[in-house]
Automatic annotation (TrEMBL):
It is found in: Endomembrane system. Belongs to the TMEM135 family. The chain crosses the membrane at residues 30-54, 66-87, 99-119, 152-172, 302-323, 376-397. This is CLUMA_CG008687, isoform A. It comes from Clunio marinus. It comes from the Eukaryota. It is a multi-pass membrane protein. Keywords: Membrane, Transmembrane, Transmembrane helix. Residues 11-144 form the Transmembrane protein 135 N-terminal domain.
Length: 457
């Protein structure tokens, strides 16, 4: 029976496949509702409270009220997505008398996602779509790769990042970004600087200021000497030549070096802070290992990427303005592509795919606003449902192609139930589903604590 048609129904019951721990579809759905509600509440409490704290001010009663309502609504959204998936699986089995490749996960996941997204706030739907699109794109690539349909390209994520960022920076330099006002441009402005932003007034060269620093007592003589030396070097860099077409205030050398060193320092600070948070238990147990944690090779990755990108971009942009005696938005394309080489020091797939989907979203919105592409009503909702269904399909039939972190998310959300769904009857489709799920379960057991135990493996 191997490699049976995937459109043919497999005559397995929902008791055997969906909820082998109970004979009741209602009990299975109710149990999933309870455990998913608890985990959803935990997740969104952390998310919303962290967002509230990041504002950097004492929250008012209105802020607290919005936070509580946001937690409750988002918890309802994620809980609905979890328990309605199980309910739709049982419903479709009763309608069709079995499961095929579509009704075994994709269609019920699409239906549950549609039900759930209507519960969530409209302002969050686009953000959720971007996230699932990111993870689903990676899953689809792995699925195609496992079938021999595509081949991985070395540092392909760097190419994706470069092409996507080039389009965003072109919009940024052209000034068209002012129409959409997407938050991604705040990040771009932070990395390349406000001077590269299109639509700004032309600036004039500013001579280095001869500022005076207060004298410091002898106890801090070394610091005083360092500050004086830093000021001398900075003033000399500022006084170097600057092309009239360059939009920045001081010399090109100062502009380039300052951008690179500033972003390197910020990236280093981010990496150190992350290491401190993620390794707090190890540091408390063994303070002697603190230095080894902070001075590891990967500590410089984010700083090298941010600093390298800013330095190379500014250098190439100024070089092109010097050579051509002009300043065009199109110069941002070669400057960005060359600067993207710095992404090799931090080749994160998630970041590359996020930038790709953000560029596609902004491009589509821009072209649809100009009348070149039609506006699709409910397009965001459809994309969210389609991509989420892909993730549930991968988790059901070929989990090796799903990002491990997303599998753990589904595992915790379902209280371990996703690992107990009996998929052995689906092996006739030639996907080695049972073997894949057993290996994934073993990896999950060694990596996380399982609080719930069901099934009969």
């Amino acid at each position: 029976m191997a490699n049976q048609s995937k459109l043919t129904n497999i005559p397995t019951t929902c008791i055997e496949y969906v909820h082998p721990w109970t004979d009741s579809c209602i009990n299975a759905t109710a149990g999933l509702l309870i455990v998913s509600a608890l985990d959803s509440f935990r997740i969104y409490t952390i998310v919303y409270v962290a967002s509230l704290l990041m504002r950097g001010r004492i929250p008012k009663r209105k802020d607290l009220s919005r936070t509580v309502l946001g937690i409750m609504q988002s918890t309802a959204f994620l809980t609905t997505s979890a328990f309605s998936y199980s309910a739709y699986l049982c419903f479709l089995r009763r309608v069709f008398g079995g499961f095929n490749i579509w009704t075994g996960s994709y269609i019920p996941a699409f239906m549950s996602s549609f039900t759930a997204i209507l519960v969530e706030r409209p302002s969050r739907r686009s953000l959720l779509t971007m996230y699932v699109a990111n993870v689903a794109t990676e899953a689809l690539w792995r699925m195609a790769s496992s079938r021999g349909m595509v081949k991985s390209i070395p540092y392909g994520q760097v190419l994706i990042f470069g092409l996507s960022t080039s389009s965003l920076l072109y919009y940024f330099r052209s000034g068209v970004h002012l129409e959409g006002k997407d938050s991604i441009y705040d990040i771009i402005r932070f990395i390349v600087g406000r001077d590269e932003e299109g639509g700004q007034k032309e600036v004039k060269t500013i001579k280095p200021e001869q500022s005076t620093r207060p004298r410091i007592k002898n106890n801090y003589l070394l610091i005083q000497k360092f500050l004086e030396m830093h000021k001398k070097v900075t003033d000399k860099l500022k006084a170097l030549p600057k092309h009239d077409k360059c939009p920045h205030h001081h010399s090109c050398a100062y502009y380039t070096i300052r951008g690179g060193t500033k972003l390197f320092g910020i990236g280093l600070g981010i990496q150190v802070a992350l290491k401190l948070v993620l390794n707090i238990q190890r540091i408390v147990k063994s303070p002697k290992k603190t230095m080894s944690i902070f001075f590891a090779k990967d500590t410089l990755k984010i700083g090298a990427f941010l600093g390298g990108f800013s330095f190379i971009y500014r250098f190439i942009a100024c070089f092109l303005r010097h050579v051509t005696n002009d300043d065009k938005p199109s110069y941002s394309i070669p400057a960005t592509m060359l600067a993207s080489v710095a992404f090799m020091s931090y080749p994160d797939k998630t970041a590359a795919l996020y930038i790709m989907w953000k560029a596609l979203q902004i491009t589509y919105n821009m072209l649809s606003d100009q009348g070149y592409l039609p506006k699709v009503p409910g397009g965001v909702i459809f994309l969210y449902c389609a991509f989420t269904a892909v993730l549930f399909h991968a988790a059901t039939f070929e989990p090796r192609n799903l990002r491990p972190s997303y599998w753990k998310f589904l595992f915790n959300l379902s209280g371990g139930r996703i690992s107990v769904m009996d998929r052995r009857s689906f092996d006739v489709w030639g996907l080695d589903t049972h073997a894949q799920i057993m290996k994934t379960i073993e990896m999950t057991r060694t990596g996380t604590d399982i609080k719930y135990t069901f099934g009969r493996w």
